[in-house]
Amino acid sequence: MNYSTEKNNKVYLMGEIVSDATFSHEVYGEGFYEFYVKVMRLSGQADILPVTVSERLIQGALLGKGRTICAVGQFRSYNKLENGKSRLMLTVFVRELLDETPDKNPNNILLSGYICKPPVYRTTPFNREIADVLIAVNRAYNKSDYIPCIAWGRNARFVKNLCVGDKVAISGRIQSREYQKRYSDADIRTMTAYEVSVSKLAAFEAGEEFDIESEFDLYTLPKADVAPVTDNIG
Questions:
Q1: Residue among 232, 211, 202, 173 at smallest CA distance from 11
Q2: How confident is the model at residue 210 (pLDDT cuts 50, 70, 90)?
Q3: Are strands 85-97 and 46-54 parallel, antiparallel or unpaired?
Q4: Spatial contact of 178 and 205, defined as CB atoms under 8 Å apart
């Protein structure tokens, strides 16, 4: 498998599996399963992240609840119909399972794509600057993944001046965040959002050559020698 053509969306993840695997969908006879992984932050907090794995990778692997998973892949989006409305879903799509590497950052993502909505800049009551930005990341078969990102401080100030269509490269981590959604006065539910917390960011011209891995020092993927996984999550 040639990972050199997939530099625009790369994830390295290591954490504890905290749910049983459930069947998700099938593509060309290949089954995919979903579960959740707990990844610890340096602060001691944890991100609980959705992960999708092919049955081809699961075979012979110890991926039960309570086990540690170490994987590389991509952060994918897809639309799911819920109550008659389309909802953007996000998942870490595993491309390869690795041996544990405790010396590596357990939650690392690199993205290169295009801003597809005007960034939303705001400040908190404590005067902390934040900017929300949605990035469209191209992948094979003329598909794109739509990845919500959140920038802080000087990165937020930089992002607020960018426009729809601008090309950016981002590195950071995937985080989970709970929030309250009100359906009615009597129905308030706790929901979970997933987004990329930006640590480094750069903008560049669409035709400009940009060595993302060199700039952002992402974990380098090893050469793979595994059965290919269908490049689709449905």
A1: 173
A2: low
A3: parallel
A4: no
Q: Which phi and psi (to 5°) does residue 57 adopt?
A: -85, -30
Burial class (CB in 10 A: 0-12, 13-18, 19+), 22: exposed
Are residues 100 and 37 in contact, defined by beta-carbon separation less than 8 angstroms? no
Least confident among 50-54, 116-120, 139-143: 139-143
- Domain positions in the chain are 3-216
CATH 2.40.50.140 for domain 3-216:
yes
Decide: helix, strand or coil at residue 50. strand
pLDDT tens digit string along 46-84?
A: 999 999 999 999 887 778 899 999 999 999 999 877 777
Measured CA to CA, the distance from residue 38 to residue 15 in angstroms comes to 5
